[in-house]
Backbone:
């Protein structure tokens, strides 16, 4: 309950989120000399998928021809939806920025006599970014989830409001510019580090009028022991067996058309799947503890020898975390389609650098770093010019879960989560999409969204949870609408009823709307989809 | 899921209350935090990393009953083990930094994928021959 008086503050730039994108944005804005406030749902250092991961950044030296070659290789995998200029930009910015962390992150050798910069371990990376941001003058407010944006009369974003959960107080921040860096939406799949990644920023931005892009590209999974989602390094050489000891026909991890995932998903639908890591590289068996200790703990704490014993596995849905959909970027400064609002990291579309395939494994981290830095700098410059407009009247933009359209009688929406999960990360729904399945799931999710929008209302910590469920429902609606409109297969969007790629649909696909969801190609006429 | 806070080790510093990203703990009246929202625990082990007294144990099971009890984990040396493996319980000597092997992640991942690809090709070939 909100007992104490509300917290009210102002800043030039407000950053919403506390992962790598948020921190890099905050650092750049503060270095530009403006006042920066960062609000995170969790704790900057442990929250988000960066902290539990260990992102390897796209890392290409500025040597003649090398970057051009790298860009062409990756462009070829983007199914025509990436932009070479953006790819060049993230390679260059990442190369310049990461070494700046040297005073904060314990960089070590690269095995060849140089320094290894490109891959960083999550907890140490986020601890370093926190200290770097604080030294740059950023004010960090941990455990301050944002619930909604505030709007000026002209529709420009004026700040945000939320709930300080340790203090049990509501908060309001007025700002000249706001950066959304709330990460992707993994639909509570259990994916490592993703509990708070429920798409809140996408909902808040959409309520302010922002448009999304690439939401159909949200079909990504990571393999882990069935009882604990870990990083995937240990499992690349795995063989797979059923409980009778029969080896399963599972194509290797990097096969096309998600063959690896599809084979695992089909097998998992019929019964437990056991992994056997006896073939793993010897250096991995010897060195895993020193490289990625958190991948070992789930085994040791069950008395399982992961390289000798067979153990059950599962694939955990990643939604838009390693999918590529998110807020549409309309300018070189990571502007969204709403004035004063910027987006960075997994909450922004990564199609600009990865197109229709996952940018996991290098591009997503380089994007999160670069888009953060770009958004932070652009937001600072904009806020300096436009000012905070502190005294102008504003209105709160939040809808579902905060201001029900009808009677308030639903304080908790977790009952609907299994339906949302089945529609978005359910193996059959996601890996074998088809028009009729998409329609069925769309209608089921629509009913849940309606109930939350019409009747959802909670206070304090309950409001945070309810908004998370509203956001997941909203993300599911956008994903299903986009997947239905994209009447073809392209990259990770695989329609069994439309197996081929259609050259006429080589365009990014926009989706937005709350009451009514609409879609349209980025270049082309609007196409209304009946909600 | 977070299984236990060992009261006899806990100094009441409240670091875990702040560091848990999903707001699982409440500050306790006797200094030892309370596990107040177990349903929000994402089994990320971060509280163990941030506890300077090695007073917490996170069971690896995201759902259901843990295989080992917290007491068994303590007896096995698992309590505090993860923080030690990360090197967060001590400074590293300059000639052997904590992350000196981290560069191997990419090469080992690729090697694993290549092993799987070679083995699969062989298996397919054998299948076609036979
Ligand atoms: C297992 C795994 C391995 C990966 N490996 C790689 C790799 O090797 N290379 C690569 O390029 N990419 C990799 N990725 C992807 C990469 O980690 C992400 O692209 C990147 O970390 C995203 O950073 P972010 O800051 O956008 O999001 P996150 O780190 O997820 O941060 C989101 C933040 O937003 C906060 N937040 C959410 N909602 C709210 C709210 N309502 N109010 C306030 N704050 C909120 C959260 O608390 C969190 O701090 C991997 C991803 C996973 C899951
Ligand atoms: S394991 Fe993670 S989510 Fe669970 S209590 Fe510890 S820090 Fe919090
Ligand atoms: S961090 Fe450790 S010592 Fe400090 S309060 Fe939490 S459990 Fe106790």
Residues:
């Amino acid at each position: 309950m909100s007992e104490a008086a509300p917290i009210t503050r102002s800043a030039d730039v407000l950053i919403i989120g506390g992962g790598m994108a948020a921190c890099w944005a905050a650092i750049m804005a503060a270095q530009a000399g403006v006042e920066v406030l960062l609000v995170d749902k969790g704790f900057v250092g442990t929250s988000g998928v960066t902290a539990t991961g260990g992102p390897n950044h796209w890392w290409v030296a500025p040597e003649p021809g090398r970057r051009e070659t790298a860009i062409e290789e990756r462009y070829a995998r983007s199914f025509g939806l990436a932009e070479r200029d953006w790819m060049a930009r993230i390679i260059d910015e990442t190369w310049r920025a990461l070494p700046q962390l040297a005073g904060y992150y314990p960089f070590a050798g690269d095995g060849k006599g140089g320094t290894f910069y490109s891959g960083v371990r999550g907890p140490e990376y986020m601890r370093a970014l926190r200290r770097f941001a604080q030294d740059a003058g950023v004010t960090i407010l941990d455990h301050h989830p944002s619930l909604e944006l505030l709007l000026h009369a002209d529709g420009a974003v004026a700040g945000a409001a939320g709930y300080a959960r340790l203090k049990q107080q509501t908060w309001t921040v007025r700002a000249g510019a706001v950066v959304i860096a709330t990460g992707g939406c993994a639909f509570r799949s259990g994916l490592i580090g993703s509990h708070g990644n429920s798409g809140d920023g996408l909902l808040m931005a959409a309520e302010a009028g922002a448009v999304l892009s690439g939401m159909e590209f949200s079909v990504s999974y990571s393999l882990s022991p069935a009882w604990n989602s870990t990083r995937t390094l240990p499992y690349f050489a795995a063989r797979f067996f059923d409980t009778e000891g029969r080896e399963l026909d599972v194509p290797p991890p990097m096969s096309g058309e998600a063959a690896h995932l599809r084979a695992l998903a089909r097998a998992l639908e019929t019964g437990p799947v056991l992994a056997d890591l006896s073939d793993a590289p010897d250096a991995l068996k010897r060195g895993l503890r020193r490289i990625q200790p958190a991948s070992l703990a789930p085994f040791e704490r069950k008395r399982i020898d992961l390289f000798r014993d067979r153990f059950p596995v599962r694939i955990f849905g990643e939604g838009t975390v390693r999918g590529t959909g998110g807020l549409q970027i309309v300018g070189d400064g990571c502007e969204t389609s709403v004035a004063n609002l910027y987006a960075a990291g997994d909450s922004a579309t990564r199609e600009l650098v990865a197109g229709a395939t996952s940018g996991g494994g290098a591009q997503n981290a380089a994007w999160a770093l670069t888009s953060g830095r770009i958004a932070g700098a652009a937001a600072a410059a904009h806020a300096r010019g436009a000012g905070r407009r502190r005294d102008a009247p504003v209105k709160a933009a939040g809808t579902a879960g905060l201001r029900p359209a009808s009677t308030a009688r639903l304080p908790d929406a977790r009952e609907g989560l299994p339906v949302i999960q089945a529609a978005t990360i359910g193996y059959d729904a996601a890996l074998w999409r088809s028009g009729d399945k998409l329609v069925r799931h769309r209608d089921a999710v629509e009913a849940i969204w309606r109930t939350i929008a019409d009747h959802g209302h909670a206070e304090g910590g309950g409001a945070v949870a309810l908004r998370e469920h509203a956001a997941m429902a909203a993300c599911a609606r956008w994903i299903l609408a986009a997947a239905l409109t994209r009447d073809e297969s392209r990259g990770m969007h695989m329609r069994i009823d439309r197996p081929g790629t259609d050259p006429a649909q080589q365009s990014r696909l926009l989706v937005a709307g709350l009451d009514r969801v609409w879609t349209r190609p980025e270049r082309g006429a609007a196409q209304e989809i009946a909600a | 899921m977070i299984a236990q806070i060992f009261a006899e080790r806990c100094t009441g510093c409240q670091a875990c209350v702040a560091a848990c990203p999903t707001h699982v703990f409440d500050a306790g009246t006797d200094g030892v935090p309370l596990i107040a929202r177990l349903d929000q625990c994402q089994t990320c082990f971060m509280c163990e990393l941030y506890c300077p007294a090695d007073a917490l144990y996170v069971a690896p099971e995201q759902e259901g009953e843990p295989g080992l009890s917290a007491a068994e984990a303590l007896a096995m040396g698992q309590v505090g083990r993860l923080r030690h493996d990360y090197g967060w319980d001590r400074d590293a000597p300059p000639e052997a930094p904590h992350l000196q092997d981290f560069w191997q992640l990419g090469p080992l991942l690729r090697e694993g994928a290549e092993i799987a690809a070679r083995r699969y090709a062989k298996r397919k070939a054998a299948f076609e021959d036979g």
User: Anything to note?
Assistant: Residues 109 and 115 of chain B are 10 Å apart (CA to CA). Chain B touches chain A through 53 residues (CB under 8 Å). The radius of gyration of chain B is 21 Å.
